Amino acid sequence: MIIDFNLIIQHLPFLLQGILVTLQIAAFGCCIGLLLGTVLALFQTSNNSFLRILVNSYVVIIRGTPMLIQVFSAYFLLPQIGIHIPALWTAILAIGLNSAAYISQIIRSGILSINTGQIEAAKVLGFSTTDTIRYIILPQALRTTLPSLGNEFVTLIKDSSLASLIGVNELTKQANFIKSKTFDAITVYFAVAILYLIMTSTISFLVSRLEKRMNNYAQD
Amino acid sequence: MLKINNIKKSYNKKKILNNISLTVNEGEIALFLGSSGVGKSTLLRILNNLETIDNGTFYLDGKLLDLNQVNKTHTVGMVFQHFNLFDHLTVEQNIMLPLEKILKKSAPDAHKITEQLLTRYGLLDKKNKYALQLSGGQKQRLAIARTLAMEPKIICLDEPTSALDPVLTSFVANNIQQLATDGYIVLVATHDTDLIKKLNCTIYLMREGSIIETAQSQALQNNPEQFPYIKSFIAGHE
Prior knowledge:
Chain A has about 220 residues and is mainly alpha-helical. Chain A contains 9 helices and no strands. The longest helix of chain B is centred in the middle third of the chain and has 14 residues, at about 105-120. The chains are: A mainly alpha (about 220), B alpha/beta (about 240).
């Protein structure tokens, strides 16, 4: 048999330690991405041309360069400018900043999909711009973009494996340790692929449940 | 009393409103009649601070109306052609949200006002439905209720029958007439000639941004010959 299940069971606790770090990177990266992405989307849909140009440039740079380069840049650049943080947080920061660019585009499309009539109605009722964003625009933009945001969170989990390249002991790095020790690359990477699949499928399932719950207003 | 003085508005050198002047008292309905693009909706949108004005003034009870402040002071309310309800909120929340967040009413007060308005407009049993789940007529009643919640003095209705089934025109007319009976200043923009037959109002026929003929609905019914342009518009010969 190509896959050695005994080897997987034997190293499962070690792999689970890696999963915890992977989930940590994904969760914090997701928070940074969602918060910063929302702010960037609001800037990009604002009337301020300076903010729009700023966000457009950020999105072009982040989307136009490999994520691996971004992770390495953060890892080598931050100490040069006097910021000394653990590799784990460097990875979280790099992945979060990368994700923010993609999430900003998702939320921007959600904001633009909202009927301008509702924004006019809010204005006539006396809502300020901030209140309109808070109570009318964002709740609907987040609902309509939930499937795309779910995809982005799945991508985030998979991208967290890049943290292994700057020495963070997440799932892929742990797998590499086991592979070096056992020389059974097929078994190790099979196990890791299954574990990633379980994590991403769980996220997809949870997002689809949330989507169903939040979109009940659209059903007759 | 709302006094509208010499309102002018142009888009790209095209005159949309040309010296519109009229007076509407509390309890009266001013109905702007005309084809699409004659400027009737633009007048209502200007009054609601949704469009800028080139020239002219509005006076309410003798005081100059600052159009930049009308939304903050809730002086004017608007029932939109497509209602523009908040789709992500329930019927109840559509009214409660502005009451709580804008008028700063306490939750029990906001709830009480909302229940009263929903009862009045026959929507109480729909309070937990989402706005998207309502029929056209129900949406319009909710839009009127939401407008009334802000206690405006002037209520504008933009094409109130165009998004509804024609059989609902009488119900809509009753609702509009009731607003006037309750003492609001009511402005209606419409091209629906059925609606004018069911309202007790002053009709302002508009063409190319100007009012070309004015008639009391009662006088029009008694003697249509006296109002050739409106008669022609109703006959579909404009």
